[in-house]
Amino acid sequence: MLVPARSDAAVAARTSRAVRVASTSVEAWLLAGVVAVGAWLRFATLGSQSYWFDEAQAAHELHLSFGSMLNSMVVHETNPPLYFVLGWLWARVFGTGEVGLRSLSALAGTAVIPIAYLGGRELVSRRAGLMAAALAALSPFMIWYSQEAREYMLLALLCGASLLYFARAWHDPSRRNVALWGVFSALAVLTHAFAGFLVAPEALWLLYVIRDRTTAIAAGAVAVVQLALLPLLFNHATKSLLGFIGETPLRTRIQQVPVAFGLGTLYQSPAVRYGLLGAAVLVGACIVLLLVGSDSKQLRGAGAAAALAAVVLLVPLVLALLGEDYYIPRALIPAWIPLAVVVGAACTVPRARVPGAVLGVVLLASFVYAQVKIDDNAQYQRPDWRGVARALGSATATRAIVANDGSTATDPLAIYLPGVSWSGPPAGPVTVDEVDVVGRRWQTRASALPAGTRLLSAKTVDDFLVDRFSIGPARPLTQPQITALAGQLLTPPVPGAAVLVQSQRGAR
After folding, report:
1. 185-210 per-position pLDDT tens digit
2. Tag placement on the chain: N or C end, fewer CB within 10 Å?
3. Residue 207: Cβ within 10 Å count
4. How far apart are the first and last CA of the chain?
5. Do 93 and 103 form a contact (C-beta atoms < 8 A)?
6. What DSSP designation does 147 have?
């Protein structure tokens, strides 16, 4: 008697599950598929590239004690502390290796995909949201920073959440929506200074449209957070640490932004020359499609997203022209999701579906093409400092390593080479019996080596030459003497070369 009852219950349970599956919308399945593809693109190759300079700095700081990490952050970082606080907690569980530490960014980058969908759905339409999610999932730019152990993908996620609740508060000014906008906006500001360029116009917009006490309190709270961070933004380290930005002309960096936003690190290729032209064509196509094919609600939502993105892109540019120049693509990431919403809206307009779909297919195909090219070409990837460390091999005694790329090389190598002090070599002479040089392919090994010097090995890692030289007998050398000797071994000498000292036993 119990068997039929159990069978009936099992059949009923299976039927109930089948009904739930069947009732799940096609839209939800599409979004789930897009998120799954985006997650795979981010996690599958998370450890394939080595740390570069910025990530090495973060990996070093996040393995310190909490207090030491905060002290180091104030001295060596230019951004607010939220990523470092979360990263420190994350590192306690997952470690500071490439996969462990980058997984925080990969998780945030995966979460950006449904956030882009929700933002597009709220501002424009469900179809626009799906297209924005697809752009976020396949974007080489978003994949790159989802695989970087820095704050940029956390910034994108929190700015996307700020945009979402801005849209919800605009359409439904409930206390919950306004409060959540304030929370996510404050967290975004606590992650990166450039979040303010998105949050500030959102606040002004909501204050103008809603005009109630809740909105004023939320906007005021975000403003207080921003003001509290001003001492950090203007600390003594900011100018010196960000001086590298000015090494590239502003005109070139302006051209890089649209190429980076669309094709990731291919901005380092000749394609950068066509960046502004390509952006102009895309903007023109989006404007035409939106004006011809969208209804008033969709046009209004896309216009709001476009206006917010324009503030993020143009206000820092004006500041750069006035002398406060921090204009680089990754800092402008708060504009990415609003732009994806605009493009998603243009690609899904109801009265011009065919040309909109063609534009969408072209964009997604170009993203896939760019990602394949990046994966296949070391020129567009991070420098392989892990490979350089392997080429250097183990130290048999105390040795000096001269990196012609300066501190951009020594920080990652200090992560990958045991027995290297993070604080650098001693100020005085160091007794070494080996001097190794990490140079570039365009350099040439000396045809006649100095007396007593012998080539131990010569290897090539991507664009790097890794040459090891014995200089026996061991003798004390100062840093200037070491770099001078390296300049004789691998010519021509490179100004700004930095020295690492590696011993068999030691700690960072």
Report:
1. 999 999 999 999 999 999 999 999 99
2. N
3. 15
4. 72
5. no
6. T
